[in-house]
Write a structure and sequence with these properties.
single chain, alpha/beta, 11 helices, membrane, Glyco_hydro/deAcase_b/a-brl, transmembrane
Length: 407
């Protein structure tokens, strides 16, 4: 009898061990099951594209549900698909992003609206990153940044899917928000379009140009530390934004950008580089060249570049870094709206020297009716333009966007 009980005990132990093993394996598998990725993987010849488009559109739906449920008035909506190079690895990251201008009741607090968004986007694997004071077309607003975070290998990725601008009470009218308060009487004697190149390298000059409250065309260089911030502030302050496309200069020693359109590239390489640069800067309506004294004199290269611009309905302004440039000529032949730089303002980075150039521009505008000039995103240039505005307007000179001069 004792022997039978012993055998039963052995079998009982074995059964319990099997059950425990099965439960352990199931628990281990469940605990180590990978969280579904927030991105899709698209393999290309130039490395993989990590595509967050579906994830960001899921967050868009959550944001839209908040707007609909609360009856918030939606004004302007700007959206774009962005694609930027990855850090330290071949390939790109792609996502869809939006800017929304919404009007909320005067009694609603920004903090309470932020909490509503936070709850809604959490269910879409999103999060609210911040809410802070900002301006939109010169009007004070609160900006709420919404998006997602992910990790690719050892690379932390933060994606902004929705940038929501809150205004309280009466909706902002884009037309009236962009209106320039002119300070002079009588007829306009001339118009100056000021393009400011190289936004993206530094932060301090962005706010200085945005605060001028006059039309400035922001030319933003891609892939720099403050490129997206410059584009966002340029747009929110009511200005126009264009891409400042890096192109190969005659002198290799003068080359300032590693990623640029070069004459030794194939047609496909040139077009892909231009497409990626366009997608990397939100809200652009045109392009001008950064450097490019060699590239803008090459017919094949310019045809490749301009084909992409035409496909994306973007205008082109030739910075004229080389008197032998054929860029504007080819652009017009291809039916692309085109303009040309006529004067560089700040080869000397001194307020007095820049003001002297601006007075030359004033004389050119009075003589010819219009003039397009280029300066750079420097504090001395911003100071010079600010100090010249009263003089311009007392002389009947009107600042306008370069888009008004295109042919």
């Amino acid at each position: 009898m004792a022997k039978v009980n012993y055998k039963r005990s052995i079998w009982l132990v074995i059964v319990i061990a099997l059950v425990m093993t099965t439960l352990y394996i199931k628990f281990f598998q469940d605990s180590n099951e990978q969280i579904p990725p927030k991105h899709n993987l698209e393999k290309t010849g130039a490395g993989a594209v990590i595509d967050f488009t579906d994830a960001t559109k899921k967050i868009h739906i959550a944001v839209d549900s908040v707007l609909a449920k609360n009856g918030f008035s939606v004004g302007e909506t700007k959206e774009i698909t962005k694609e930027v190079p990855r850090k330290n690895i071949e390939g790109t990251i792609r996502w869809h992003t939006r800017q929304l201008l919404i009007t909320v009741p005067a009694e609603a607090s920004a903090e309470s609206i932020k909490e509503i968004f936070k709850s809604a986007v959490h269910n879409a694997d999103g999060q609210v990153f911040s809410s802070q004071p900002d301006t939109y077309q010169g009007v004070a607003v609160v900006r709420i940044d919404i998006g997602l975070k992910d990790q690719l290998a050892k690379e932390d990725v933060t994606i902004i899917s929705d940038r929501v601008y809150l205004t309280q009470g009466k909706p902002i009218s884009p037309k009236t928000a962009n209106k320039i308060d002119t300070k002079y009487d009588g007829s306009i004697k001339g118009k100056i379009a000021i393009i400011i190149d190289d936004f993206g390298y530094n932060k301090e000059s962005i706010a200085a140009f945005a605060a001028l409250n006059r039309p400035i065309t922001f030319a933003v260089i891609p892939y720099r530390p403050f490129s997206n911030e410059a584009a966002a502030i340029g747009l929110s302050s009511g200005n126009q934004v264009i891409l400042h496309l890096p192109m190969e200069p005659l002198s290799q020693s003068a080359q300032s950008e590693e990623l640029m359109v070069a004459v030794n590239m194939s047609d496909e390489e040139i077009q892909n580089m231009v497409k990626q640069a366009i997608q990397s800067v939100p809200g652009i309506i045109g392009v001008n060249n950064h450097q490019g004294s060699r590239a803008t004199a090459d017919r094949r290269v310019m045809k490749d570049v301009l084909a992409v611009l035409k496909e994306n309905h973007l205008f082109f302004v030739d910075s004229r870094t080389n008197s032998q440039s054929i860029a504007a000529e080819i652009a017009r032949q291809m039916g692309i709206k085109t303009g040309e730089n006529e004067l560089f303002l700040d080869n000397t980075d001194e307020v007095g020297a820049v003001k002297a150039k601006l007075r030359t521009a004033q004389e050119m505008a009075i003589k010819h009716g219009t003039v397009t000039v280029i300066g750079h995103a420097r504090m001395n240039t911003a100071i010079a333009v600010k100090e010249m505005i009263p003089e311009f307007e007392s002389q009947g000179i009107h600042l306008v966007f370069v888009s008004q001069f295109l042919q």
